[in-house]
Specification:
This protein is α+β, with helices and mostly antiparallel strands. It has four helices and seven strands.
Length: 162
């Protein structure tokens, strides 16, 4: 598999929506409105406060992530990211490759750590990956996420130094 991770471009909107729409509609991993429009989702994912990247295999965009400062001012040295992989490409190492790329990109941009503020506790695949990549669970928010099938579940705060 020849994987290329590059900055997102304006013409990537259709491919990004194909990745984001099923994630948003499922409502199982992101605290976003399940009825979010294409325009609102792309404005969020490609926001001016973040750098957005896409992962391509043989010219097809199969994943994306954004990188931004987790907080302003005194917290601006800690990065925050969001990741999404096309449902047909899960289990192929794309999320891991994007994560590793994001760590390097964050270091290049001067970030010294990375924090994920709200990882849904029922997202076992993501939690396994983040722990395998050196993140520690530093907090738990009881019943902070209303999962569409499971009801109230915890959200986890993860952190790692870069």
């Amino acid at each position: 598999m020849s994987l290329l991770i590059r900055p997102a471009a304006p013409q990537d909107g259709g491919a990004l929506w194909a990745i984001l729409e099923p994630v948003i509609r499922a409502g199982e991993t992101y605290a976003l409105d399940r009825d979010m429009t294409r325009e609102a989702a792309l404005a969020y994912w490609l926001g001016a406060d973040r750098a957005t990247f896409v992962a391509e295999v043989e010219g097809r965009i199969l994943g994306s992530y954004y990188l931004r400062a987790n907080q302003a001012g005194g917290g601006a040295h800690v990065a925050n990211c969001g990741y999404a992989t096309h449902e047909a490409a899960r289990g192929r190492g794309i999320a891991r490759a994007m994560a590793e790329h994001s760590f390097a990109e964050a270091r290049t941009r001067g970030f010294r750590a990375m924090q994920f503020n709200f990882v849904v506790s029922s997202n076992a695949i993501a939690l396994r990956l983040w722990h395998a990549l050196g993140f520690d669970t530093v907090g738990r928010l009881p019943e902070a996420f209303d999962h569409p099938a499971l009801g109230p579940v915890d959200a986890v705060v993860l952190y790692r130094r870069l």
